[in-house]
Design goal:
single chain; mainly alpha; 10 helices; elongated
Length: about 180
Amino acid sequence: MTDVSSQVAAAHLELIEAVSSALTLPEATPTAGTAAMLAIDQYREDGWNALAEALKRRLAGRTVDESTLDDEDRMILAAIDRATDEPRWLHRVAEQAEVEAAEQIAALILAATWGERDALAALNEMREAARAAGIQGSTAHAFVAIVEGERRLDALIESHENAQAGLVERTLVALTQREQGQG
Protein backbone atom coordinates (compact mmCIF):
# COMPACT_ATOMS: atom_id res chain seq x y z
CA MET A 1 0.00 0.00 0.00
CA THR A 2 1.17 3.52 -0.75
CA ASP A 3 2.32 5.39 2.34
CA VAL A 4 -0.21 8.07 3.24
CA SER A 5 1.10 11.42 4.41
CA SER A 6 -0.99 12.89 7.19
CA GLN A 7 -0.56 16.31 5.56
CA VAL A 8 -1.86 15.02 2.20
CA ALA A 9 -4.76 13.25 3.89
CA ALA A 10 -5.63 16.36 5.88
CA ALA A 11 -5.39 18.59 2.80
CA HIS A 12 -7.90 16.40 0.97
CA LEU A 13 -9.97 15.45 4.01
CA GLU A 14 -13.39 16.39 2.59
CA LEU A 15 -12.82 14.44 -0.63
CA ILE A 16 -11.48 11.42 1.24
CA GLU A 17 -14.40 11.47 3.68
CA ALA A 18 -16.97 11.81 0.91
CA VAL A 19 -15.59 9.04 -1.28
CA SER A 20 -14.84 6.62 1.58
CA SER A 21 -18.37 7.16 2.94
CA ALA A 22 -19.84 6.41 -0.47
CA LEU A 23 -17.73 3.25 -0.74
CA THR A 24 -18.58 2.13 2.79
CA LEU A 25 -22.35 2.64 2.66
CA PRO A 26 -23.39 2.89 -1.00
CA GLU A 27 -26.93 1.52 -0.57
CA ALA A 28 -27.70 2.82 2.88
CA THR A 29 -26.98 6.45 2.13
CA PRO A 30 -27.57 7.53 -1.46
CA THR A 31 -26.66 11.07 -0.42
CA ALA A 32 -23.13 9.81 0.30
CA GLY A 33 -22.78 8.92 -3.37
CA THR A 34 -24.10 12.32 -4.41
CA ALA A 35 -21.72 14.10 -2.03
CA ALA A 36 -18.81 12.05 -3.36
CA MET A 37 -19.68 12.88 -6.98
CA LEU A 38 -19.94 16.58 -6.14
CA ALA A 39 -16.54 16.50 -4.46
CA ILE A 40 -15.03 14.61 -7.40
CA ASP A 41 -16.54 17.07 -9.88
CA GLN A 42 -15.03 19.95 -7.92
CA TYR A 43 -11.62 18.30 -8.09
CA ARG A 44 -12.03 17.85 -11.85
CA GLU A 45 -12.92 21.55 -12.19
CA ASP A 46 -9.77 22.36 -10.21
CA GLY A 47 -7.65 20.41 -12.71
CA TRP A 48 -7.35 17.04 -10.98
CA ASN A 49 -8.64 15.18 -14.05
CA ALA A 50 -6.75 11.89 -13.66
CA LEU A 51 -7.69 11.65 -9.99
CA ALA A 52 -11.33 12.47 -10.71
CA GLU A 53 -11.49 9.75 -13.37
CA ALA A 54 -9.85 7.24 -11.04
CA LEU A 55 -12.30 8.06 -8.23
CA LYS A 56 -15.30 7.70 -10.53
CA ARG A 57 -13.98 4.31 -11.65
CA ARG A 58 -13.48 3.28 -8.01
CA LEU A 59 -17.05 4.32 -7.12
CA ALA A 60 -18.37 2.35 -10.08
CA GLY A 61 -16.55 -0.74 -8.78
CA ARG A 62 -14.05 -0.79 -11.65
CA THR A 63 -10.30 -1.18 -11.33
CA VAL A 64 -8.03 1.85 -11.41
CA ASP A 65 -4.73 1.95 -13.29
CA GLU A 66 -2.63 3.79 -10.71
CA SER A 67 0.33 4.06 -13.10
CA THR A 68 -1.47 6.97 -14.76
CA LEU A 69 -1.56 8.89 -11.47
CA ASP A 70 1.06 11.04 -9.77
CA ASP A 71 2.31 10.38 -6.23
CA GLU A 72 -0.19 12.69 -4.54
CA ASP A 73 -3.11 11.14 -6.43
CA ARG A 74 -1.94 7.67 -5.36
CA MET A 75 -1.69 8.87 -1.74
CA ILE A 76 -5.24 10.19 -1.92
CA LEU A 77 -6.47 6.83 -3.26
CA ALA A 78 -4.54 5.02 -0.52
CA ALA A 79 -6.09 7.33 2.07
CA ILE A 80 -9.57 6.58 0.71
CA ASP A 81 -8.85 2.84 0.89
CA ARG A 82 -7.59 3.13 4.45
CA ALA A 83 -10.50 5.35 5.54
CA THR A 84 -12.90 2.85 4.00
CA ASP A 85 -11.26 -0.03 5.89
CA GLU A 86 -10.62 1.92 9.11
CA PRO A 87 -13.11 4.80 9.46
CA ARG A 88 -11.54 6.13 12.69
CA TRP A 89 -8.11 6.39 11.02
CA LEU A 90 -9.12 9.50 9.11
CA HIS A 91 -9.97 11.37 12.31
CA ARG A 92 -6.63 10.38 13.81
CA VAL A 93 -4.68 11.43 10.73
CA ALA A 94 -6.42 14.81 10.61
CA GLU A 95 -5.56 15.33 14.27
CA GLN A 96 -1.94 14.30 13.62
CA ALA A 97 -1.70 16.73 10.71
CA GLU A 98 -2.96 19.51 12.97
CA VAL A 99 -0.31 18.65 15.57
CA GLU A 100 2.42 18.70 12.90
CA ALA A 101 1.16 21.98 11.49
CA ALA A 102 1.05 23.52 14.98
CA GLU A 103 4.68 22.53 15.55
CA GLN A 104 5.76 24.15 12.29
CA ILE A 105 3.71 27.28 12.90
CA ALA A 106 5.04 27.58 16.45
CA ALA A 107 8.59 27.53 15.06
CA LEU A 108 7.61 30.22 12.56
CA ILE A 109 6.00 32.36 15.25
CA LEU A 110 9.01 32.00 17.53
CA ALA A 111 11.33 33.04 14.70
CA ALA A 112 9.07 36.01 13.95
CA THR A 113 9.11 37.11 17.59
CA TRP A 114 12.90 37.07 17.38
CA GLY A 115 12.63 39.43 14.42
CA GLU A 116 13.46 37.05 11.58
CA ARG A 117 12.19 38.87 8.51
CA ASP A 118 11.38 35.77 6.48
CA ALA A 119 9.20 34.42 9.29
CA LEU A 120 7.45 37.77 9.68
CA ALA A 121 6.90 37.94 5.92
CA ALA A 122 5.48 34.39 5.81
CA LEU A 123 2.98 35.12 8.57
CA ASN A 124 2.01 38.39 6.96
CA GLU A 125 1.49 36.61 3.61
CA MET A 126 -0.80 34.10 5.33
CA ARG A 127 -2.82 36.94 6.85
CA GLU A 128 -2.99 38.82 3.53
CA ALA A 129 -4.13 35.67 1.73
CA ALA A 130 -6.95 35.31 4.24
CA ARG A 131 -7.89 38.95 3.78
CA ALA A 132 -7.83 38.59 0.00
CA ALA A 133 -10.19 35.63 0.34
CA GLY A 134 -12.52 37.86 2.36
CA ILE A 135 -11.82 36.14 5.66
CA GLN A 136 -11.38 38.45 8.60
CA GLY A 137 -10.41 37.15 12.03
CA SER A 138 -8.79 34.06 10.49
CA THR A 139 -6.33 31.62 11.97
CA ALA A 140 -3.54 33.56 10.23
CA HIS A 141 -4.76 36.73 11.92
CA ALA A 142 -4.58 34.90 15.27
CA PHE A 143 -1.01 33.82 14.52
CA VAL A 144 0.00 37.42 13.90
CA ALA A 145 -1.66 38.39 17.19
CA ILE A 146 0.43 35.72 18.92
CA VAL A 147 3.59 37.26 17.45
CA GLU A 148 2.38 40.61 18.75
CA GLY A 149 2.15 39.16 22.27
CA GLU A 150 -1.35 37.75 22.80
CA ARG A 151 -1.04 34.31 24.38
CA ARG A 152 -4.48 33.81 25.94
CA LEU A 153 -6.50 31.28 23.93
CA ASP A 154 -9.87 32.72 24.96
CA ALA A 155 -8.86 36.22 23.82
CA LEU A 156 -7.48 34.90 20.52
CA ILE A 157 -10.64 32.93 19.74
CA GLU A 158 -12.90 35.81 20.77
CA SER A 159 -10.96 38.31 18.64
CA HIS A 160 -10.59 35.97 15.64
CA GLU A 161 -14.01 34.47 15.07
CA ASN A 162 -12.95 32.56 11.94
CA ALA A 163 -9.86 30.99 13.50
CA GLN A 164 -9.52 27.23 13.86
CA ALA A 165 -9.63 26.97 17.63
CA GLY A 166 -7.92 23.57 17.77
CA LEU A 167 -5.00 24.69 15.61
CA VAL A 168 -4.59 27.93 17.55
CA GLU A 169 -4.62 26.02 20.86
CA ARG A 170 -2.13 23.42 19.66
CA THR A 171 0.10 26.17 18.30
CA LEU A 172 0.08 27.96 21.66
CA VAL A 173 1.03 24.73 23.43
CA ALA A 174 3.84 24.02 20.95
CA LEU A 175 5.05 27.62 21.22
CA THR A 176 5.11 27.48 25.02
CA GLN A 177 7.10 24.23 24.87
CA ARG A 178 9.59 25.75 22.43
CA GLU A 179 9.98 28.86 24.55
CA GLN A 180 10.67 26.72 27.60
CA GLY A 181 13.23 24.71 25.63
CA GLN A 182 11.15 21.55 25.55
CA GLY A 183 10.43 21.37 21.81
